[in-house]
Amino acid sequence: MHRASLKTHLLAAGAALALVTPALATPTLASEPPLRVLATVGMIADVAQNVAGDCAQVTALLGPGVDPHYYSATPQDVNAIAAAELIFYVDRALEERLADVLQRFRERTPTVGLLATTFAAPDLLDDPDEPGVVDPHLWMDVSRWARTAPVIAEAIAELRPHCAAMMAANVEALTVQFTALHGWVGEAIASIPEGQRLLVTAHDAFEYFSNAYGIEASEAIEGISTATEASIADIREVAAFVVERAVPAVFVESTISPRTIEALVAEVRRRGHDVVIGGELFSDAMGDAGTPEGTYIGMIRANTVTITEALGGTVPDWPLALHGWADAWGVAP
Ligand SMILES: [Zn+2]
Q1: Which of 192, 196, 244, 269 is most buried when burial is the number of CB atoms within 10 A of its CB?
Q2: Do 177 and 56 fall into the same domain?
Q3: Domain match, 258 and 178 both
Q4: How far, in Å, CA of 294 to CA of 114, rounded?
Q5: Are residues 325 and 251 in the same domain?
């Protein structure tokens, strides 16, 4: 190429760039595609989507009824993990098998373990069966789960800095809702007559709930993890508790086969006592998408109503701060 023409060419290119760059700068920022965020469980995905608004497209890997303790990644899951720009999970104590797959992607994709990032050891409960092993079921205490919202916002803001102010406002609005929800759950559980605040479930997912809301004692057939089958000895032990404390109702869980609790009821009856199944609780997954229980607030609300009514309490009025949520979901407040 002739020297003069090369110079002309470069100048032309420079001029074109100079024209294009400022014109594109602002629209690029505003029209940046939503960040592809992947959350393992719905309870994280719901908070993350509410925090991020249009700045992120949040997907949950595990749907309704799926037990995160027991779940292994499918090839499609691995593709979804590979396509994500930011990943949130709770802790290896919950996503026991997925954690290894997430570990493989850690170097190329920012990955946030919410338990370790949000909480210090004194904020956490231990596995009652294995002291020193952490209990991961933090979403059961709304005040604890609320603390993940700013952590999620901060992680997204690292990749979408222009979204930070909007997300700060969303975190503030969510905090108001979660504070109201927390108070409401406490009021509901306090309405259960003393001596009946006893929560018997299939697996140990309700220690944070019990701790936060004044359940006197909780018993579960299986431990924190569901990776091993419940034994006859486990069922007998819980049956003895149900008989001794005259527990009025026991609960099945959405992510666990009802057979375990049915076996418990049969064992209690064999001992000449009666107990009913008080309903189904959402333990380690939310309800179906598109239903109120498919949101974090709705999941906690449904669990609280089920527990309160089955154990002889009175469900209090739905808080004013959550009337907007109720209207959006067509739920009578
Ligand atoms: Zn669990």
Answers
A1: 192
A2: yes
A3: no
A4: 21
A5: yes
137 C-alpha vs ligand 1 centroid, how far in Å?
A: 6
- Find the domain containing 60 and state its range: 35-184
Rounded to the nearest whole angstrom, what is the distance from the C-alpha of residue 228 to the centroid of ligand 1? 12
Q: How far is the CA of 25 from the centre of ligand 1 (A)?
A: 47
Please check whether residues 289 and 222 belong to one and the same domain: yes
Cα(28) to ligand 1 centroid in Å equals 42
For residue range 38-48, list pLDDT tens digits in order: 999 999 999 99
Q: What is the DSSP letter of 251?
A: E
Please check whether residues 136 and 159 belong to one and the same domain.
yes
Q: 257 C-alpha vs ligand 1 centroid, how far in Å?
A: 13
133 near 126, Cβ under 8 Å? yes
- 172 shares its domain with 281: no
State residue 129's pLDDT score.
81
pLDDT at position 30: 58
On whether both 229 and 122 belong to a single domain, the answer is no
**Spacing, Cα 153 to ligand 1 middle (Å):** 25
Number of domains in the chain: 2
> 180-194 burial by CB neighbour count: b if 16+ within 10 A, else e?
bbbebbbbbbeebee
Tens-digit pLDDT profile for residues 211-266? 999 999 889 998 878 777 788 999 999 999 999 999 999 999 999 989 999 999 99
How far away, in angstroms, is 64 Cα from ligand 1 center? 14
CA distance 144 to 114: 11
User: Distance between CA atoms of 253 and 251, rounded to whole angstroms?
Assistant: 7
261 and 299 in a single domain? The answer is yes
Give the distance (Å) from ligand 1 centre to CA of residue 95. Answer: 9
Count the neighbouring beta carbons within 10 Å of the beta carbon of residue 206: 26
Q: How many CB atoms lie within 10 A of CB 133?
A: 14
